[in-house]
Amino acid sequence: MATPAQQQGDQHQPRLQKVMVAVDESECSRHALEWALRNLAPTLAPPLLVLTVQPHFPLGYVSAASFGAPLGTVPPVAPELIRSMQEQQRELTQELLDKARAICAEHGSRF
Known about the structure:
By secondary structure, the chain is mostly helical. It is built from four helices and two strands.
C-alpha cells in the first residue's frame, strides 16, 4: 500500500507536527500503531506520541459488590485495597507502554 506522500506524488510534503496513537491491550490498537509507523514514517516529526488511559475504578461499588452488600449500602474501602489496585493498574499500563516502545523501536521510531 502506498504511503500518503506516494499517493500524492509529492516527495517534498511538509512534515507532520505531531502524531498521536492511542493504545490499549487490543490487537486493533497494535495494528493502528504499526500502520502509523509504516505509513506516516516519511512525514513524522519525532517523537511519536503514544497515549493510553488508565480506567477509573468506582471503588465503593466494586467493594460493595464483592461483599454482596445490598443495593444502597457501601462498606468502607480499605486504603490498602485502593493502593493495591492503583499499583496493579500502573504496572499494567507500564507493560503496555513498553510493548508500544518495542514496536516503535522495530520501526526505527521513538516516543
